[in-house]
Q: What sequence folds into this?
């Protein structure tokens, strides 16, 4: 009997030796006369257990991890290929508490399927959303997205349905869909996990967006630091074209949609939508003044839907099950689910997809298990390097757009970076300004000059040079950057700086 063994091909698993583990399993199986079918799946998101090896049994998949090549002979001795008990065993994967407590809509397939097997994608519900969309008028597709309450998962939280409706109503001879896959925020990796673990989902979402607004061409702007995602996406796009999902006759409908992959050059600011469009057009990645909005004057001056990976990846589920079914999840104006990413000094780092409204404390302790060091968690940064540093007194805050904004924070892409009580928050504030100075596109003065002057002010503050005057100057500088910068790069940099000053004042006293 052939045994199916799953070894992830996700970047996190690869970095922990997943290829070597896969090779060791194949060699050991051959030596023992065990017939094995090896499937390279996506990651389940339990990154502290990578490489997480799963074995298919009659009662379901059984998980083992973290597995090293040296563990493989012992696993075979314990009949792991039959689901046998072992010190690295975690029982049936579906019964692991980490997964059981989640509501996986966008990530429902990740870890289950071979990411590049299109037939496997369809067997697990793939293409149901696109097939439904092909039966609807463009305005009806947009209405479903509106009804879902889906908001941009890239940080701003703008309602996706309103953006799509704007592009649909725009008069133009050409329209485009641009996927911002330049995932550069610290502690974020959900985009990468979808692109590596379920790439057809993103492709399906982009085709649906094209049908909704009248665009027949799309671009994925992928950050250069994701070489594994590039390989997977390139192959997936080719296979989707061969399967009739892309091209002149989408699933036999007579509708056209073509998709192109473009690679960025390492600029953080190209995560901003207009800088990304500039880069796509072959120019230096600088922010454009708004208005006009990209929805009206976007790629090559044409109306353009610009969404990030998580936004577009949510669309197939919404079309397949209905906007109302998606909207029942979450709280208030934060509807649906969000894949939160736990990183930094955290015991159980990884990806958790749950409805909006879960508290930060639940994410940090129920899922994350507290700090990896075992020391108290002093601060977390939510929303990437431009997000606020939040103290323990804020950990009861619900993780949704409005609640975090009311707490002085930013949800952003859902990344949470954890720091224990050994962190120096004054240094973290300085880092925020230094990061802005390095990554600024240089187009506007408040961001370009303000960040550089900010580093100098923090250095004087930490040196004890007229502390009160330096703090007042720093706060005034931050207000100038916040109100006068051309984009969020300069406009949000004050958030981590001021939150560090407000919540961790003692760290600024040397």
A:
């Amino acid at each position: 009997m052939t045994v199916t063994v799953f070894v992830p091909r996700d970047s996190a698993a690869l970095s922990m030796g997943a290829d070597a583990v896969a090779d060791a399993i194949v060699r050991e199986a051959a030596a023992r006369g065990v017939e094995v079918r090896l499937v390279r799946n996506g990651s389940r998101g339990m990154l502290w257990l990578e490489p997480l090896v799963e074995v298919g049994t009659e009662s379901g998949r059984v998980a083992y991890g973290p597995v090293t090549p040296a563990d493989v002979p012992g696993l075979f001795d314990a009949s792991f290929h039959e689901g046998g008990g072992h010190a690295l065993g975690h029982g049936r994967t579906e019964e692991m508490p980490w997964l059981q407590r989640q509501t996986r809509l966008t990530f429902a397939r990740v870890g289950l399927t071979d990411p590049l097997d299109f037939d496997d994608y369809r067997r697990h519900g793939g293409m149901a959303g696109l097939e439904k969309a092909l039966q609807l008028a463009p305005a009806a597709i947009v209405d479903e997205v509106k009804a879902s309450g889906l908001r941009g998962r890239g940080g701003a939280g703008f309602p996706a349905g309103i953006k799509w409706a704007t592009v649909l109503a725009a008069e133009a001879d050409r329209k485009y869909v641009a996927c911002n896959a330049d995932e550069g925020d610290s502690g974020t990796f959900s985009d990468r996990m979808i692109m590596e673990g379920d790439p057809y989902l993103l492709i399906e979402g982009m085709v649906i967006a094209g049908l909704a607004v009248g665009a027949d061409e799309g671009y994925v702007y992928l950050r250069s630091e994701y070489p594994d995602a590039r390989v997977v996406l390139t192959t997936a796009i080719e296979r989707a074209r061969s399967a009739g999902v892309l091209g002149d006759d989408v699933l036999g409908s007579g509708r056209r949609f073509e998709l192109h992959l473009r690679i960025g050059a390492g600029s953080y600011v190209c995560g901003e939508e207009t800088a990304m469009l500039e880069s796509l057009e072959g120019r230096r990645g600088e922010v454009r003044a708004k208005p006009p909005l990209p929805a009206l004057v976007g790629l090559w001056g044409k109306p353009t839907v610009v969404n990030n990976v998580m936004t577009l990846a949510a669309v197939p589920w919404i079309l397949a099950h209905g906007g109302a079914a998606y909207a029942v999840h979450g709280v208030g104006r934060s509807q649906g689910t969000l894949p939160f990413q736990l990183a930094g000094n955290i015991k159980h780092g990884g990806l958790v997809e749950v409805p909006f409204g879960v508290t930060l404390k639940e994410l940090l302790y129920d899922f994350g298990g507290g700090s990896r060091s075992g020391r108290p968690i002093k601060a977390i940064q939510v929303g990437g390097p431009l997000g606020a540093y939040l103290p323990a007194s804020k950990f009861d805050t619900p993780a949704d757009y409005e609640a975090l904004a009311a707490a002085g924070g930013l949800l952003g892409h859902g990344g949470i970076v954890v720091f224990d009580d050994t962190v120096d928050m004054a240094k973290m504030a300085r880092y925020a300004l230094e990061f802005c100075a390095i990554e600024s596109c240089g187009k506007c003065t408040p961001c370009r000059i303000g960040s550089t002057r900010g580093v100098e002010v923090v250095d004087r503050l930490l040196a004890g040079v007229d502390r009160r005057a330096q703090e007042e100057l720093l706060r005034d500088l931050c207000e100038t950057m916040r109100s006068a910068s051309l984009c969020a790069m300069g406009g949000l940099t004050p958030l981590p700086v001021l939150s560090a000053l407000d919540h961790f004042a003692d760290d600024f006293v040397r």
User: Anything to note?
Assistant: The chain has a mean pLDDT of 95. Residues 149 and 333 are 7 Å apart (CA to CA). The domain at 425-508 is CATH 1.20.1440.230 (de novo design (two linked rop proteins)).
